[in-house]
Amino acid sequence: QVQLVESGGDLVQPGGSLRLSCAVSGSIFSIYLMAWYRQAPGKDREFVASRTSGGTTYYADSVKDRFTISRDNAKNTVYLQMNSLKPEDTAVYYCSANLDSWGQGTQVIVSS
User: Fold this and answer.
1) Residue 56 half-sphere exposure, CB side, CA atoms within 13 Å?
2) Which of 9, 13, 32, 77 lies at a C-alpha separation of 20 to 30 Å from 1?
3) By C-alpha distance, which of 108, 72, 80, 85 is closest to 96?
4) Helix (H, G, I), strand (E, B), or coil: what is residue 99?
5) Inter-residue contact 38 to 48 (CB < 8 Å)
6) What torsion, rounded to 10 degrees, do the Cα atoms 66, 104, 73, 86 define?
7) Average pLDDT of the chain, as a whole number
8) Mean pLDDT over residues 12-33, rounded?
9) Strand order in 77-82's β-sheet?
10) What Cα–Cα distance (Å) separates residue 65 from each residue in 1, 21, 40, 57, 81?
């Protein structure tokens, strides 16, 4: 069993930056994939970024070169650094372990 708690969501102006955090606890040894998804109002949840236990990263085309997924093993935390934010990045962002454990989400609003 893995528990995930996201934080760091906020209201930010277009062009700004945010760093989301996902604190991981529980059966950490069982994790082979960490991912970030997001869900905008009225839309389906969509893939944002992922990182395998081996360090391979993947990004949605819409966030490539703007977002970076990383992890701090000492802190058992996964991050999503988001730069050059756009209004279309507005969504609730969810952290996932192995795509079968999910956090409660953190709200990001990009607006002037």
Assistant:
1) 4
2) 9
3) 80
4) coil
5) yes
6) 10
7) 96
8) 95
9) 2-7, 18-26, 77-82, 67-72
10) 33, 19, 21, 12, 11
Neighbouring C-beta atoms of residue 110, cutoff 10 Å: 20
Euclidean distance between the first and the last CA atom of the chain, given in angstroms as a whole number: 40
Q: What is the pLDDT of residues 40-75, one digit of tens each?
A: 999 999 999 999 999 999 999 999 999 999 999 899
* Residue 38, helix vs strand vs coil: strand
Q: How confident is the model at residue 14 (pLDDT cuts 50, 70, 90)?
A: very high
- Residue 28, SS3? helix
59-71 burial by CB neighbour count: b if 16+ within 10 A, else e?
beeebeeebbbeb
What's residue 63's pLDDT?
98
